[in-house]
Write a structure and sequence with these properties.
The structure is a single chain. The chain has 23 helices and seven strands. It is mainly alpha-helical and 570 residues long. The strands form three sheets. The chain has a three-stranded mixed β-sheet, covered by helices on one side. A two-stranded antiparallel sheet has the order 1-2. Helix 13 crosses helix 16, helix 15 packs across helix 16 and helix 20 crosses helix 23. It is globular, with a radius of gyration of 25 Å. It binds zinc ion. The site of zinc ion has 4 residues, from helix 15.
Length: 570
């Protein structure tokens, strides 16, 4: 159950590996940005650009995967370093062409868009240009980049290092933040209470320092908006994710109108816990034990869940096992967690797991194989159109988990079934509703920052209000809960990132809602979404499956599914 990487290169010593990197470098050196002004030559220019990318991605893909199961092996580390250096060199040589494309005179750019030989790269070309109206002069961009090193990048770095040194004492053991956060899901209520106390107690103590970081990065962003002439604080993220500001706003208000579902769920959970309200330290409390699921059983379940949806999807997933594109069990030196590496149109995806024979691991298998099927199908596209945009990045993975749950819910009964239903609802609440609440917090505190720096108490007040709006009367809060905002790194490192989890999740629910309604007829439409890669915008891709992103029907389908899940709780 270890993966076989020989489809990429025979071994780390395979001479083709460095030959590919040399060839990439030579190709990158030969690119003449002036060919962008001659549309007849541009298709060939971009094909060579694409080939240079392919010849560097493939060695990097191999070296990263090789290292992932041998993190303690100095040879694997040295190979990865060497390949990364070469990769950076090639990427640097590609920059002049990328810059020239962004800065091409509008008339010349329109000539490229109109050229029949470049039809299939229209979306790629438009994406490259998207930021042109907000880009300043070369000198100004250079100055901003330099100042970022002591500005927002420095603050991000400080936040990571400073909070990374936090240690928490629980039952005589010194824990990292990751470890103490995990204890909030411990079966023992006393452990959960202690974890809650030390984590949020520390954040409350640190709020004066951490709010200074928030104030600095917020002000930096506000200045950036003004310098670059953005009209709305959501505009940069809308641009990046190829949606409209009004789509994000529609998402926020639609989700808000369904907030009572969250209150309803936590009142239900409180009852299960024998309380009137869910205590805040029990928000993540497990409601029961985790059933054991050996890998063979997990595999058969996932394949069965896929087969019921589409034999084609099942067939693709089967290839991962038969051709050894999957690395299953933990072992010394192997990195933790799980991921799917998408590969290239000319290769194929690989999946890494750390399977531990429980139901969570079975879900992870479904999730990563969902990604795997997505990348597998997206290989219909050339490299410049390969992959998945932000709004669709988690579509196939979460959809696959829902298919697995549907199968499990049919097989389980009584308390086990209730637990699985509750878990599914909690996932939805944390991925969808909570992320929207974060976005409201970020929006309000950013706008307030326009007037003046915010005190820790001002951040706390906005946080408490947003939290209360979301959970209604269903949670018993403590003094400590008002500090949770200070521990959410997204607020420091990115602007308005969290909404994208919510939108991505609603995309899945909307697709699933259509599947429930249309049955088998929907399957080919779904597969087309996955096959589209990044050939067009996520909006156009979804429209072809009959889903109109952020429309009234989109939300009706999505929240309709969710409402049914909550109603099904006994
Ligand atoms: Zn994922």
């Amino acid at each position: 159950m270890e993966w076989d990487l020989s489809d990429l290169y025979a071994s780390p010593e395979d001479p083709r590996l460095f030959q590919d990197l040399e060839a990439a470098l030579a190709l990158a050196q030969g690119l003449d940005p002036k060919d962008l002004l001659k549309p007849d030559r541009t298709a060939d220019l971009l094909a060579r650009y694409e080939k240079a990318l392919e010849l560097t991605y493939k060695p990097l893909n191999y070296a990263s995967l090789y290292f992932a199961t041998r993190t303690q092996d100095p040879g694997a580390k040295a190979l990865l370093d060497r390949v990364r250096n070469r990769y950076t060199e090639v990427k640097n040589r590609l920059v002049p062409l990328e810059v020239a494309l962004r800065k091409l005179p509008e008339e010349a750019f329109q000539a490229l868009l109109a050229h029949p030989g470049l039809m299939d790269l229209r979306h790629f070309l438009e994406r490259q240009r998207a930021y042109a109206p907000y880009t300043l002069s070369e000198r100004e961009e250079e100055l901003l980049n330099l100042k970022d090193l002591v500005g927002k990048s420095a603050w991000s770095q400080f936040y990571t290092e400073y909070t990374g040194r936090f240690r928490f004492l629980v039952r005589g053991q010194e824990l990292t933040e990751m470890e103490v956060r995990a204890l909030r899901r411990d079966p023992d209520p006393e452990v959960r209470r202690e974890a809650h106390q030390v984590l949020y107690g520390r954040l409350l103590e640190e709020a004066p320092t951490l709010s200074a970081v928030f104030n600095a990065v917020y002000l930096d962003y506000l200045q950036d908006l003004r310098l670059r002439n953005y009209g709305n604080p959501l505009e940069p993220v809308a641009l990046r994710n190829e949606v409209e500001v009004r789509d994000i706003e529609a998402l926020l208000s639609a989700t808000e109108s369904f907030y009572p579902l969250v209150e309803r769920y936590y009142l239900w959970k409180a009852k299960k816990l024998g309380q009137e309200k869910t205590p805040s330290q029990d928000l993540l409390a497990p409601l029961g034990g985790k059933p054991k699921v050996p890998f063979e059983e997990a595999k058969e379940m996932v394949l069965e869940a896929f087969r019921r949806f589409s034999p084609e999807v099942e067939g693709i997933a089967r290839e991962f096992f038969e051709k050894r594109w999957i690395d299953v069990y933990p072992r010394p030196g192997k990195r933790g967690g799980a991921f799917c590496s998408g590969g290239l149109p000319s290769t194929h995806p690989y999946v890494l797991l750390n399977h531990t024979d429980d139901l969570d691991s079975a879900h992870t298998l479904a999730h990563e194989l969902g990604h795997g099927v997505h990348f597998y199908l997206a290989r219909k596209q050339r490299l410049l159109n390969f992959g998945a945009s932000t709004s669709l990045a988690e579509t196939a993975s979460v959809f696959a988990e829902i298919l697995l749950d549907d199968l499990l819910l049919e097989r389980l009964s009584g308390e086990e079934r209730t637990l699985l239903l509750a878990e599914r609802v909690e996932d939805a609440i944390n991925t969808l509703f909570r992320q929207v609440m974060y976005t409201f917090f970020e929006k309000r505190s950013l706008l307030a920052r326009k007037e003046a720096a915010l005190s820790p108490e001002a951040f706390q007040k906005i946080w408490q209000e947003e939290q209360a709006r979301l959970y209604g009367e269903s949670v018993a809060w403590t003094e400590l809960d008002q500090s949770a905002w200070a521990g959410i790194p997204h607020f420091v490192h990115y602007r308005f990132y969290t909404y994208s989890y919510a939108l991505g999740y609603l995309v899945v629910l909307a697709l699933y809602g259509r599947y429930r309604e249309e049955g088998e007829a929907f399957v080919p439409k779904y597969l087309e979404v996955l096959k589209a890669g990044e050939k067009t915008s996520p909006k156009e891709i979804l429209a072809q499956a009959g889903v109109e992103l952020a429309s009234e029907a989109f939300f009706r389908y999505g929240f309709g599914v969710l409402e049914d899940w909550i109603k099904a709780l006994p």
